[in-house]
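Re: folding output
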Amino acid sequence: MPELSREQLSTAFDGTSLFEAKTWQLSPQAWPLTSRQVQELEQIGEACLHFHQSLENLYLRSSADKNLLRNRKLTAPWVAEYLDRGKPARLIEHARDDRNRGQFPSVLRPDLLLTEDGFVMTELDSVPGGIGLTAFLNRLYEVQGDVIGASDRMLHEFYRSLAALSVQGSENPVITIVVSDESATYRPEMIWIAEQLQQRGKRVYCLHVDDLFPLGPTLCLDIDGNPEKIDVLYRFFELHDIPNLSTADYIVEAWAAEEVAVTPPLRPFQEEKMSFALFHHHLLVDYWKEALPAKSLKKLRKLIPQSWVIDPVSLPPGAVLDAPPAAGRPLADWTQLDEASQKERDLIIKISGFHETAWGARSVIYGSDCSREEWQAGVKIAIDDALTNPHVIQHYHKPRRITHPLYPEALKQAAAGSPAAIDRQGRLRLCPYYFVTEGKTQLAGALATFCPPDKKIIHGMQDAALLPCRVVDLR
């Protein structure tokens, strides 16, 4: 297998603005996955879409206080109340609009940790960064063969998933990738994606949200001084940011007039981390069993860690919460989480969604890796914000140690004549990208984030290696 030299990698990254001001560790090899692991990833993609479909049904039936089961009475209006907390009424109304029924994100990206017991899914992202990054890395490492997403499959499937949504059924629709200021870090890679697709004759453009304008009921962009109607809008902005977007009303009005398709849909319940807590809720066990195909139910039960919504309520004497224990006892009040021992604090607290800190691990508190004072402060915030910005608490599953060769220098620090790559220990987060087209998921690439073993929360950082994945059947 040909290995990529440090100089080859540095030259490739320096030749594009896609990675401006970014640093990470370099490796001569793509991340190895067995064909069995790839097959499991394909099954995970299918299960993630089934989860979204079942979540939509749960939310809509809950919001209408309808029965959830076919042959037995079960209502759960509290589910919609949870998922709607802190959301503006107009966005809730839009999410429930019948014209949105059956509309799911075009891109699904779970965050998978590789543990001693296999994969664990900590989140399911529907507005993920890294599409362009992974496509670029796939192309760069393609010389090693069997790269998942080789031959620009990421770009092809991304485009296909968007073009299929064209409201006018155009063979070459006008597609815009719209990026807000809050998401500006990812603008270079979105511009790169648009440019790559333009080179293939596709009418794909990356715009700032202010560059959109209405023309009658349509939504348009300017091309060489002429207005061009947009058929599909891929939003790369978070829903909490909508009040800050000057053209948000134009987007919604053009969608309502059926002049533009918007993906991911403007449906906040699809982007709440508390959906994992709902999956494990003891009152909904029968719902998920009935709503999900048996194969996906089994897969999701293995993947999704036990999670709870932190919801302070008054209980009668003798009652306890559905919650992790503290000081060896079940909780009667969420404030009792303060008493959890360090061993019992093998838990993650994070904001559920619809907030500027809900992405990029910015709100994450890992109980076993912080002081008691930090833990207590995190618990207090979660309790105080429960009605406006709900938090979830989740069992932490530690990724196992593995090895992979790395060069000594980070991306922008590489210099000629440095030592050869050596095997390093670390922990892995795997982010497969699934593109949804006509109700089916297509695995088109996977980004491996290989972090030093002392890092408890795995995400993109200068100490990590970011790598594409290839199939390697070890004998």
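--- second protein (sequence, then structure) ---
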Amino acid sequence: MNRKKLKIGLFGFGCVGYGLYQVLQKTNGLKTTIKTIVVKHPDKTREIDKEHFSFDKNDILEDPEINVVVELIDDADAAFDIVKTALSKGKAVVTANKKMIAEHFDELLELQSTYNVPLLYEAACCASIPIIRNLEEYYDNDLLESIEGIVNGSTNYILSKTFSDHISYDTALLQAQQNGYAESNPILDTGGFDAKYKLLILLAHAFGLVVRPDDIFNIGINRIGEIELAYAREKKLKIKLVAHAYKNSKGLISCFVLPKFIPQTHHLHTVDDVFNGILTKTSFADVQFFVGKGAGAHPTASAVLSDLSALTYDYRYEYKKLIQGEYLEHDEAIFLKVFFRHQKRYSKDYIQLFDEVNESYANSENAYIIGRISLENIKTIQTADADNSFILLETLPEFSPILNTQKLKTYELIE
């Protein structure tokens, strides 16, 4: 098969944009040319000559010679405008903007269908790990039961440094910012939102389930405290921010992003620093484990490069699980065993929300409960006391067809 020649219009020349430029210079077999690079700030010092840059998006979008648009900017709203226009003009698109994809997934599906052009976004999920392509091609007929993993390199770096170097969370976060792994306002990563956007994308390719970002519950690591760190060290556990999606026997999907205690026997225990790790479980192949760098210029650029290579063969996502008609409903009727740290003065209120309490502890100010609780009650806690509570997953979820709605009606958490 003859490979298609690509003439690229590149939006953004930050860390990943420059990384892509570098790897393309070293990739001789790929028939690609970057014709135009559009950037926002004309006075910013850049690594290559000014003659390569433009400041008008129409220099790419209105150029009939450019057949591929690569979008690598931070602004999700501006990115959607670029991607929407490019697709409507018949240009293939490669993007790494997981927030943009998650917030406009239905619209992007429709645009691809209407204009018959591909949109690829491997770099939006786990950087160097080709998880989307594997879900599309390898697991299209195998009965996928679950997918879980570390999908955010920034938080994994922070947690790894906290445990390996015994430094504070704040110090580890500062180091992540200094190394370019976290932004000056890192809440997108540390609050679990980035992981939620990635999980939303994975759900569509893994199970044929299309949801909105608000449909996925997330707790990040931004309120991690010394009690849970001390507990983890005492029990020889690590804390990881893990995205989860499970299908029960009735075909209902439960999905959420929560910090999780990881024992030494678990695959994710060895996934440290900026690495990501994904576990899939299927009916036929059982458990498979993917690991690779999840942050940094070259790992992310390598995923963009892979998508560009695929486009030279006219590859596109077939969304096989969507076409197969799975469209499984989202299920919140599950129970989790959790470690729940909170202010001591609210212990009596909180303990009533647990169906089972295995262990509890309190000092003069703080306390924790280990026990079984519904996901709905966890949401109730977070809504009422988001600034003072912290929840970690202790074990895999237990599925239940019944929601404990009575407790939600009976108890008011805090004054």
